[in-house]
């Protein structure tokens, strides 16, 4: 009810009645969830509770709220804690766990990082990240839900982890361990050599040509944005040297919307992370203005707010060219979940 009310609020000229209804039902949902977690009512099964927790994040995305998505993601992580080492779980549970982990990862990519020293060998590092894409873990949740391949999702996690390690040594102005440098180099090589045909993707035989074309463009946009993220955060490449990479992401994101406008009756909103990351590094902003204005049609508060943040970042970077988009977010304490 809350999610639907906030959606109607966005679609119908910010009708205050829908907004009030959304707030009321969000509070009821939160109170009910807290009662369950405090064991004041009979315990529901793990999947039901996890769906309820994820729904609280969805409410925030629909409203565009910056208040509580980190709280809910942390709550999900705490709830999953006792099961962290479990391997034998159902497909439905694995899919919910994957969705939770991916949303948490997207939040990390735009958060102030916690610098940490490099304390692992390259071998254990690769085992850690390879576990994300083993055959047993592949439910194709990434592909069908987010339009990203599991390998690119794992690469984004690796970029985020490596960035936190690099920041530790950059801030300390100390030498960077050679194993860490090799891990950065190896990740860059894998991103440069990635192709969709070499990745493990599901069959779209029963879904039609348009859906496969949308997935192809989405997956290439995710890869392009991951490459921009890597070059900017790991290699320190500035916006003026990312023009080609940013333009590639824009072309794929625009292509997705063009296909949907021609052939897809019930259009679903895109996950906006590729657009947000690439937009933040954009000097040629016209394609991105076109894309952000077009996707306002979906009536999702988070998309509207992200475009506002992107515009703030453009203004700040025009005024302070030496400052990167992450630095702007952190300095201004801007919280964003690009989902």
UniProtKB/TrEMBL annotation:
Q: Which Pfam families match?
A: Fungal_trans_2
Q: Please provide the record's keywords in A-Z order.
A: Nucleus
Chief location of this protein? nucleus
Task: Supply the InterPro entries for this chain.
Answer: Fun_TF
Could you tell me where this protein is found in the cell? Nucleus
Q: Name one GO cellular component term.
A: nucleus
Q: Where is the signal peptide?
A: none
Query: What name does the UniProt record give this protein?
Result: Fungal-specific transcription factor domain-containing protein
């Amino acid at each position: 009810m809350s999610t639907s009310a906030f959606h109607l609020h966005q679609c119908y000229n910010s009708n205050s009645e829908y907004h009030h209804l959304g707030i009321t039902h969000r509070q009821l949902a939160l109170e009910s969830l807290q009662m369950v977690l405090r064991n004041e009512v009979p315990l529901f099964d793990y999947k039901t509770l996890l769906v309820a927790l994820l729904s609280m994040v969805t409410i925030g995305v629909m409203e565009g709220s910056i208040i509580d998505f980190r709280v809910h993601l942390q709550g999900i992580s705490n709830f999953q804690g006792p099961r962290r080492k479990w391997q034998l779980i159902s497909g439905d549970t694995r899919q919910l766990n994957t969705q939770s982990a991916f949303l948490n990862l997207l939040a990390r990519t735009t958060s102030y990082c916690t610098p940490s020293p490099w304390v692992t060998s390259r071998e254990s590092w690769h085992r850690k990240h390879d576990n994300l894409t083993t055959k047993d873990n592949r439910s194709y949740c990434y592909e069908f839900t987010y339009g990203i391949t599991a390998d690119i999702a794992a690469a984004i996690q690796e970029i985020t982890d490596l960035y936190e390690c690099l920041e530790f040594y950059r801030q300390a102005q100390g030498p960077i361990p050679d194993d860490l440098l090799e891990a950065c180099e190896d990740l860059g090589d894998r991103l440069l050599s990635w192709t969709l045909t070499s990745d493990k993707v599901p069959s779209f035989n029963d879904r039609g040509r348009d859906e496969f074309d949308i997935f192809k463009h989405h997956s290439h946009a995710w890869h392009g944005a991951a490459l921009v993220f890597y070059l900017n955060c790991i290699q320190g490449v500035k916006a003026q040297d990312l023009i080609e990479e940013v333009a590639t992401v824009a072309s794929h994101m625009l292509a997705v919307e063009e296909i949907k406008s021609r052939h897809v009756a019930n259009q679903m909103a895109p996950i906006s992370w590729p657009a947000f990351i690439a937009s933040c590094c954009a000097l040629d902003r016209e394609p991105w203005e076109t894309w952000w204005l077009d996707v306002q049609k979906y009536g999702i508060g988070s998309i509207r707010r992200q475009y506002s943040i992107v515009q703030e970042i453009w203004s700040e970077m025009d005024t302070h060219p030496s400052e990167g988009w992450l630095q702007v977010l952190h300095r201004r304490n801007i919280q964003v979940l690009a989902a």
